[in-house]
Amino acid sequence: MTLNLFRVACIIFVLGLAAAIAPPALSHFTASAQGASGVTPATITTFNVAGAGTGTYQGTVPVAINTSGAIAGAYILTGNVSHGFLRATTGAITTFSAPGAGTSNKQGTFPDSINTAGTIAGYLSDSHNGYHGFVRTAGGAITAFDVPGAVKNWHLGTAACAINTAGVITGVYRGASLVHHGFVRAVNGAITTFNVPAAGTGTFEGTIPLSINAAGEITGFYIDTSNAHHGFLRAANGAMSVFDPPGSGTGKNQGTVPVSINTAGAIAGAYTDATGVSHGFVRAANGTITTFSAPGAAVNGTLASLLQAMGSGPPTQGTGAISINTAGTIAGVYAKPTGVAHGFVRATSGTITEFSVPGAGTATLEGTVASSINTAGAVTGTYVDAKKVFHGFLRSP
Predict the structure, then answer these.
(1) pLDDT band for position 161 (50/70/90)?
(2) Which pLDDT score, from 0 to 100, does residue 337 have?
(3) Distance CA 216, CA 319 (A)
(4) pLDDT recorded at residue 4
(5) What is the CB-side half-sphere exposure of residue 201 using CA atoms within 13 A?
(6) Strand partners for 44
(7) pLDDT (average), residues 315-327
(8) How far is CA 38 from CA 223, 261, 292, 342, 376, in A?
(9) Is 84 or 151 the better-scoring residue by pLDDT?
(10) Are the C-beta atoms of 367 and 342 separated by less than 8 Å?
(11) How far, in Å, CA of 342 to CA of 294, rounded?
(12) Domain spans of the chain?
């Protein structure tokens, strides 16, 4: 169904998709609570931002949860306008819009990450559809920023994708040649840009960071000259290494997309094989890669390849790991053959527990997407109901 909700804004930015439509449901990988046998089901709380739209592909879209349990995300109104929200551990919700955010179709505020201090990073789309990074402090002060050389129109510009405990931000920008480049923004606002040496330099190729840990290590993917994806790890000193899980495809829109890195340096993500089906992976700090697929995940390579050929983006079949916490527990999404999404939690032992939020739809492009897991094992994400409306949830461990 999708790769993720986590890093949604950056994925949308990278793919140039309609920001108010693609976030929760339709753009990247495929990917009562149901517990494992003999295990007490986790508690699931659902929520909606007051005033969120109730039409198709409108509603509430949580994207990240921090150590204390505060949740950041976006809510989408009628007209496909997005605004940010912060849900406190008490359940109280504060809404916000970044200064300069547009108020028309596919414009607005797109939070993407929240750190332990409650600082939020993301991007805004202005009235000219130009993108700008922003950082919002726990006190509510918002600062917008641009990487020098970034184009600021036609759904181009700067997008902050992740923020670590120190407040250092990583993300992606595009210049006039439409090539993707990575950046790191220090707490003092100083910006350093970087590229993976093997990344392509043609239109829509390049380097796309998605996550940063407390040590300043950054992971993400790069797009080569064949439009295949490969994983990278950038050390805090700038040293770069690249990787692909065994079986990763090398064709257009195939390959490796690391999405999350934890404090220990373990990386979780998904890779697409040569048939267009996605699978989860975890890469240990020593470089060892373990691949996995959720039980019951769809593996229809013919359908996946057909959808790719039709230009609908990367695959709608298989398993996608989205977020990894300090303990190494992973949250993500997988799609069944019917195209219905289900959330999962993968323990460090490899045991995978599926869950679906009560009220989630059971038809194609409906269901549950787990977006982010915190240190305590609490999971947030979105469920899509039978009317294709988005709603938030919190799954307590």
Answers:
(1) very high
(2) 83
(3) 28
(4) 33
(5) 4
(6) 395
(7) 86
(8) 44, 31, 23, 20, 21
(9) 84
(10) yes
(11) 10
(12) 8-379
The Cα–Cα gap between 47 and 95 comes to 14
How far is Cα 303 from Cα 315, in angstroms, rounded to an integer?
Answer: 9
pLDDT at 175 (0 to 100):
84
CA distance 367 to 24: 11
Assigned token pair, 389: 């409306």
- Residue 279: pLDDT band (50, 70, 90) is very high
How many whole angstroms separate alpha carbon 68 and alpha carbon 29? 29
- Domain 8-379 is classified in which CATH homologous superfamily? Peptidase/esterase 'gauge' domain (2.130.10.150)
How many Å apart are CA 27 and CA 61, to the nearest integer?
Answer: 14
Closest CA to 301 of 249, 260, 372: 249
Query: What mean pLDDT, rounded, does the chain reach?
Result: 87
CA distance to 30, 70, 95, 242, 308, per residue, from 27 (Å):
9, 26, 25, 25, 11
- Rounded Cα gap, residues 282 and 278, in angstroms: 13
pLDDT (tens digit per residue) in 110-153: 999 999 999 999 999 999 999 999 999 999 999 999 999 998 87
